[in-house]
UniProtKB/TrEMBL annotation:
UniProt protein name: Polysaccharide biosynthesis protein
Superkingdom field: Bacteria
Coiled-coil blocks: none
Keyword set, alphabetical order: Membrane, Transmembrane, Transmembrane helix
Keyword Ribosomal protein: no
TM stretches of this protein: 43-64, 99-120, 186-205, 226-248, 254-276, 297-317, 337-357, 364-382, 388-407
Taxonomic source organism: Roseateles flavus
Length: 427
């Protein structure tokens, strides 16, 4: 198929929508079914294992966006740099080592976290975690290769690969569960899907022409701030399921994971929206245009969350929520903090993408990273006093602090680019 076809915005939007829906089914809708088929304890253990999914993005954050920005600013679709293969090999080697260290740290947290019946303790549970971890390494290599597709503005192709992988993973999860393979089957399903993704991406990138101009070699200092920001973002948005296991039993932890991932899917949808526009923001470098799009998006997200609050607060779902193991959602304070935290997470994630695309100095990165790293301690401190509601308050407060830093940096950029008033004639 003609590569120019993949650059069409409608193709990219349709592929992104399909990917989002499939990921929502696999990571959210599938949880109650797994709870029914495998039991609450096994489903809760799978929830803890899959909470490590963002680790792949953390290891790619320092190099992914700078690479896409460099390719996008070459002047449109064309060949890859002459030294692309060497760069990608070096990138995946160091990223793979970092991912392995983070996986070991995650395993240590699961082993010492005191999650009770939700803990991964059985041998088949650790086997599932190992297979899932291998799948993460394959996904990391595939995402590194997809930077070439995104940088050459073939976002439709990239999203199509991801959507097909998600569909394959969903089908494999259902088949493995129905076959009675338990948790190891779930890990094997993820591994097979990521292997298929890597195979497709490598074939696509290998067929792309190489230019005669090399790209500058990667220095770890160039991506240190972005990596720290990504780790901090995971601390602020991806650790709540782990922490909730201290205050909720296994059955309710699955229900909390369902609600948390449903709201996180909204944040992911904002991320997909930002990724589709990121190359254009980089090439145009117009902050005002990005902020105008951000305002429209956040207004739509706020309207949807207000509607969800009205439905939850009406009392119609009180009995079904108790039956489904999500009785904590009947608490009005918990509802408010969950929805508010989700809106703030959407705001900070998308706003940060706009600034990353147009701000050359990126002075907001380290302050945001330091604030977000404080999210788990803040959530633990408040949760030890007020339980689940206190934990959610800690995360929401962190997102609010990050938003204030982004607002300050935005005002600085707008003031620096505003036209100066003409000087008055001397009297």
């Amino acid at each position: 198929m003609n590569p120019a076809w993949w650059t069409h915005p409608r193709v990219a939007a349709l592929a992104a929508a399909a990917f989002f829906l499939l990921e929502a089914v696999q990571g959210i809708v599938l949880l109650p079914w797994l709870r029914l088929q495998l039991g609450p304890a096994v489903a809760a253990s799978w929830v803890l294992i899959t909470a490590s999914a963002p680790l792949v993005g953390l290891m790619l954050a320092g190099r992914l966006q700078p690479t896409i920005r460099a390719l996008a600013r070459q002047g449109g679709p064309g060949g890859l740099p002459a030294n692309w293969d060497l760069l990608i090999q070096s990138w995946t080697r160091w990223s793979g080592a970092g991912l392995l260290l983070m996986q070991l740290a995650f395993v240590l947290v699961m082993h010492l976290g005191g999650f009770g019946p939700a803990a991964v303790s059985a041998p088949e549970g650790w086997l599932a975690a190992g297979l899932y971890g291998l799948g993460q390494h394959l996904r990391l290599q595939a995402f590194a290769g997809m930077a070439a597709l995104t940088g050459q503005q073939q976002t439709g192709r990239e999203r199509s690969y991801l959507a097909l992988t998600s569909a394959l993973g969903l089908a494999a999860l259902l088949l493995m569960t129905l076959a009675g393979l338990g948790m190891p089957g779930l890990g094997l399903a993820v591994l097979l899907a990521q292997a298929a993704l890597l195979f497709g991406v490598r074939r696509a990138v290998a067929a792309m022409p190489r230019g005669s101009v090399p790209m500058a070699s990667f220095r770890w200092q160039d991506g240190a701030g972005l990596t720290a920001l990504a780790v901090a973002g995971f601390c602020a948005s991806g650790t709540d399921i782990l922490m909730a296991g201290h205050w909720l039993p296994a059955a309710e932890l699955v229900g909390y994971a369902f609600a948390s991932r449903a709201l996180t899917a909204v944040v992911a949808l904002c991320g997909l929206w930002a990724q589709l526009r990121f190359p254009r923001w980089c090439s145009e470098a117009r902050l005002s245009a990005g902020l105008a799009e951000l305002k429209g998006l956040m207004s739509a997200i706020a309207a949807g969350l207000v509607l969800a609050a009205c439905v939850l607060g009406s009392g119609w779902l009180e009995a079904p929520l108790h039956k489904a193991g999500a009785g904590f959602l009947n608490d009005g304070v918990v509802q408010l903090l969950l929805l508010l935290g989700a809106w703030l997470a959407c705001l900070t994630a998308t706003w940060g993408q706009v600034l990353l695309a147009v701000d050359v100095k990126q002075r907001f990165v380290w302050p945001c990273a330091v604030l977000a790293l404080a999210a788990p301690p803040m959530a633990w401190l408040l949760g030890s006093h007020w339980g689940l509601a206190g934990m959610l308050l800690g995360y929401a407060a962190t997102h609010l602090a990050v938003a204030l830093v982004l607002a300050r940096r935005t005002m600085q950029l707008l003031n620096s680019t505003a036209p100066r008033a003409p000087a008055r004639d001397a009297q």
